[in-house]
């Protein structure tokens, strides 16, 4: 008899409207333990709204949502958020708070889900921060203020911070945005390393080449609707990505990573 897989996320007929406009429509999506998902879509496709529902910052207009065993309407959303690590390039808006803090202070603050330290930090917390600095190759920066770090170093610090609480889910929302190719590849290598240990990773991007080997499944969004959702090799195809990005594209695979090129179109004769 097959063992039933543990469900991590379930969306059933989910819709979300803003100012009377449909932002997400007919979202049916299930994520199981052991899977790691990439989410792809154009700007305005609904990716951010989907993440806001997963993290409990938006409530669906209709439909049912269960995240990490917590059914919306029957659970404490603030408690749910403690089980989710979140990293986004948008966190740069907190730079004015972080700029004079040391990287170990920023990492430890992840325990309290705060920007800045306002509660007592125990010796074990500092020890854990040291281990995370070692894992993310940040020890050479110990004691350095955040404002002296490169963009790639800052992203690594924020991911380490997100893991301080041992979250059951880690959401990486365009973590490579604005990085040069060296920093990007270093961050992707670390992303590959942190997958496992029953932690679900959700990776949001515009660039399919960032879907490293550890990403097992992909969700494609267009205009608030799911184009396709399933195993990476099945979903990352010319036809489905052309539909998602609204432009003819071609996919090639190299070292278990997909790469995208735009197909040339024949111009209509005059």
Describe the structure.
Residues 9-248 form the ABC transporter domain. Pfam families: ABC_tran. InterPro entries: AAA+_ATPase, ABC_transporter-like_ATP-bd, ABC_transpr_CbiO/EcfA_su, P-loop_NTPase. Keywords: ATP-binding, Nucleotide-binding, Transport. The protein has 270 residues and is of the alpha/beta class. It has nine helices and twelve strands. It has a domain at 1-79 and 202-270: 3-Layer(aba) Sandwich (Rossmann fold), CATH 3.40.50.300. The chain has helices at residues 47-54, 77-81, 95-98, 103-109, 123-135, 151-162, 181-194, 232-235, 238-245, and strands at 7-18, 21-32, 37-40, 62-67, 70-71, 84-88, 169-173, 200-205, 217-222, 225-231, 249-254, 257-262. The strands form three sheets. The protein has a six-stranded mixed sheet.
